[in-house]
C-alpha cells in the first residue's frame, strides 16, 4: 500500500539525544559518521553565525512553489527543522520573513532549503537559523502539490523524516535517526583527541605523527627515509 502524500506521524530522535548531539560541531559528527552525511556546500547558512540542530521534518515541493511548506509549518512539532527539497531552484524564493516568524513562533528549530529565500537582512535581524542555496527577491506560487514526511534528497544527501540534522558556518550534516545515539561517545572521543592535538601544536609539535608512514604507504618515500 502506498503512503499518502502527507505523512503526519513518524519516529523522531528523542529530545535528550538531540540536546547531546547538538553540542558537537557538524564536522565532528561527519568524521565519526564515516565522513558521510554532509550536504553539498551550496546549501549554507544565510549568515555565518547561524547554527541549528533538531529533527528533520521533510518537505518536497515543485520548484518555485511553497504550498507544501505552509502545510508543513502547520504540522511540524517544536524542535523540528524544516528540510525542504526545492530542487536547487534559485529563480524564486520559497520563504521570507513572514514564514520565518511563523516558524519561530511555532518552535521550529530552523529551516534548510535546497532552494532560495528572501528578506535576508530581516532574517538576519531575527537571528533565526536559515540555510539555503541563496536568495532571490521573486516570490513563489502556492498552487502545486508535493509531499511531506517522505524521504527527500537535499544537497545530494537522502534525509528521512526524524533524522538528526545540524548546521553551522561549515555547512550541514544529517545522521540517521537510528544511528545518532551510537555516535555520541565517538564524537566525544574525537573532540577530546582534537583538543589534545591542538595543545601539542601550541607546544611546538606541529608535525603530524602519521605523516611519514602514510608517505611510505603512498610510495612517496622509501622505508627509513625522512622528509
TrEMBL record:
Name of the molecule in the record: Putative 4-hydroxy-4-methyl-2-oxoglutarate aldolase
Annotated binding of substrate, by residue: 96-99, 118
Record: residues binding Mg(2+): 119
KW Cell cycle (keyword) present: no
InterPro entries: RraA/RraA-like (IPR005493), RraA/RraA-like_sf (IPR036704)
SUPFAM superfamilies (UniProt xref): RraA-like (SSF89562)
Top-level lineage group: Bacteria
Cofactors demanded by this protein: Mg(2+); a divalent metal cation
GO aspect biological process, one term: methylation
Keywords (A to Z) from UniProt: Magnesium, Metal-binding, Methyltransferase, Transferase
Any one Gene Ontology molecular-function term assigned to this protein's record: metal ion binding
Keyword Magnesium listed: yes
CDD domains: RraA_family (cd16841)
Amino acid at each position: 500500500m502506498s503512503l499518502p502524500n502527507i505523512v503526519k506521524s513518524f519516529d523522531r530522535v528523542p529530545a535528550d539525544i538531540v540536546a547531546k548531539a547538538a553540542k558537537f560541531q557538524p564536522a565532528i559528527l561527519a568524521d565519526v559518521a564515516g565522513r558521510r552525511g554532509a550536504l553539498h556546500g551550496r546549501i549554507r547558512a544565510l549568515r555565518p553565525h547561524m547554527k541549528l540542530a533538531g529533527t528533520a521534518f521533510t518537505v518536497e515541493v515543485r520548484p518555485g512553489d511553497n504550498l507544501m511548506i505552509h502545510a508543513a509549518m502547520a504540522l511540524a512539532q517544536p524542535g523540528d527543522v524544516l528540510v525542504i527539497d526545492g530542487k536547487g531552484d534559485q529563480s524564486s524564493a520559497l520563504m521570507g520573513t513572514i514564514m520565518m516568524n511563523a516558524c519561530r513562533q511555532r518552535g521550529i528549530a530552523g529551516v534548510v532549503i535546497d532552494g532560495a529565500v528572501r528578506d535576508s537582512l530581516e532574517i538576519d535581524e531575527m537571528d533565526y537559523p536559515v540555510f539555503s542555496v541563496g536568495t532571490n527577491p521573486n516570490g513563489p506560487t502556492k498552487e502545486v502539490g508535493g509531499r511531506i514526511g517522505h524521504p527527500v534528497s537535499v544537497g545530494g544527501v537522502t534525509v528521512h523524516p526524524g533524522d538528526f540534522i545540524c548546521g553551522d558556518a561549515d555547512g550541514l550534516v544529517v545522521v540517521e535517526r537510528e544511528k545518532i545515539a551510537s555516535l555520541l561517545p565517538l564524537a566525544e572521543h574525537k573532540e577530546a583527541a582534537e583538543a589534545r592535538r591542538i595543545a601539542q601544536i601550541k607546544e611546538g609539535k606541529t608535525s603530524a605523527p602519521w605523516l611519514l608512514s602514510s608517505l611510505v604507504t603512498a610510495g612517496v618515500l622509501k622505508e627509513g627515509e625522512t622528509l
